[in-house]
Amino acid sequence: MWAVQALSMVLFALVSAVVPGYAFAFFLVYFIVFMAVMFKLTSKGMKPPPRSELGSPVFKESNPVNAMMYDKYLNAELKKQMTMMMLNFMLLFLVFILWSIYQAYIGPLIVSIIGEYTGDEVLLRFTYFLGMYVFFFGVMQGLRYLLFRGSDMQTFLFARIGFEVYRKGVMLDNRQFIAFNENICFEPNPDRKFVELRSRSNKSMRIRLYTLETGRLIDKLREAGVGECAV
């Protein structure tokens, strides 16, 4: 992801320097294509397979809300997730302030320094815009680190309508499917009435399966070949 971001900044700076009149249109098309690709990859990974391939469920929970009522920490966790999302959204408004600062002080300084070695207008514009994107990215990432340092930024997804466990994976709300593989493990929390599916490689991936029958769900997950996460 860092490599993609770095290449994107170089590409944006190059377009802004060579064809500035088409820069906005390029950014818009790039954003639309990027979001479409990400959506396609995400939806493909969670698209439910045909029912004929899944067979019969080995465990079914049709009313997880009953179990959620026993989790006294759930509301606080959801509120924390919402707060983090709002803070991330509010950081976007800082772009206007950062733009003014860069345009008034940092940008002219960069052009002045590079201008001592070359008078090429395209190269000067490229350096100016590359410095701007790096400045924006660095400040935003730094602020996120300071705001969320020491906080558990992991988010979780859970079924609201119900879920079904199959030998090949788990179906959430009849629309999202999590396939079982060697990368998936589970973390039980019987006191809070859920079992959490996690990814060994992606620490932010957490799927909560709320049920009053946590013991039976754990047995069925083990039978499906899902192991408990290492502590």
Account of the 3D structure:
This protein has 231 residues and is an alpha+beta fold. Among the domains are: 1-45; 49-82 and 154-228, no CATH class. The chain has 8 helices and 9 strands. The chain has helices at 2-18, 23-45, 51-54, 64-68, 74-91, 94-115, 121-148, 214-223, and strands at residues 59-61, 157-158, 163-165, 169-172, 176-179, 184-189, 194-199, 206-210, 227-228. It has a 5-stranded mixed sheet. It has a 4-stranded antiparallel sheet with strand order 1-3-4-5, with helices on one face. Helix 1 (2-18) packs antiparallel against helix 7 and helix 6 packs across helix 7. It is elongated.
**Structural class, please?**
alpha+beta
Number of helices: 8
Q: Could you tell me how far the N terminus lies from the C terminus, measured between alpha carbons in angstroms?
A: 27 Å
Q: Which radius of gyration do the C-alpha atoms yield?
A: 24 Å
User: Strand count, sense and closure of the main sheet?
Assistant: 5 strands, mixed
Residues in helices, as a percent range: 40-55%
Summary keywords:
8 helices, four-stranded antiparallel sheet, five-stranded mixed sheet, 9 strands, about 230 residues, alpha+beta, single chain
Strands, helices and their partners?
Elements (H helix, E strand, L loop, with lengths): L1 H17 L4 H23 L5 H4 L4 E3 L2 H5 L5 H18 L2 H22 L5 H28 L8 E2 L4 E3 L3 E4 L3 E4 L4 E6 L4 E6 L6 E5 L3 H10 L3 E2 L3
Parallel strand pairs: 2-8, 6-9
Antiparallel strand pairs: 1-3, 3-4, 4-5, 6-7, 7-8
Helix pairs in contact: 1-7, 6-7
